[in-house]
Amino acid sequence: MRYKFLTILMLLIGSTQAMAQLEPWKDYDVSKELWNITTVKVHPNLGDDYLEGLRGTWVAANKVAMELGHIEDFAIYRSQLPQGGDFNLFLVVKFADSSQLEPNKARYDEFMKAWGSANEDATREVTKNYPSMREITGEYLVRKIDIK
What we know:
Layout: H1 2-19, E1 28-30, E2 34-42, H2 47-67, E3 73-78, E4 89-95, H3 105-127, H4 130-133, E5 134-142, E6 145-147
Antiparallel strand pairs: 1-6, 2-4, 2-5, 3-4
């Protein structure tokens, strides 16, 4: 009797899991947009110094890319608990769709023309200090899921 009860219980658990399978586009939608998220662990007391560097490099480059229509948006998020985990800063870039991630010489040339060699040289100089200020702990390419 005990084994029969366990067998029935296992069958019920198994059938519940099988019924819980969601199907894309029926039970949820997947966005065309993609977000590239880089997680960064900025070393203690260097948060504002790192942000200052980002202002002239990452932020400035993303503003140009956005003006050219190469990206949709970008943002920086900082944890209110800076020592609370493996990272304390998110660098986020939003792309309209995966085509914006494909190699494209014309888009590259357009960006480099708008960015200019002066900015390129300045970026190289500023980013030399980044390894002593932070560690990149992860990079993710994600899509939004909307459950129906």
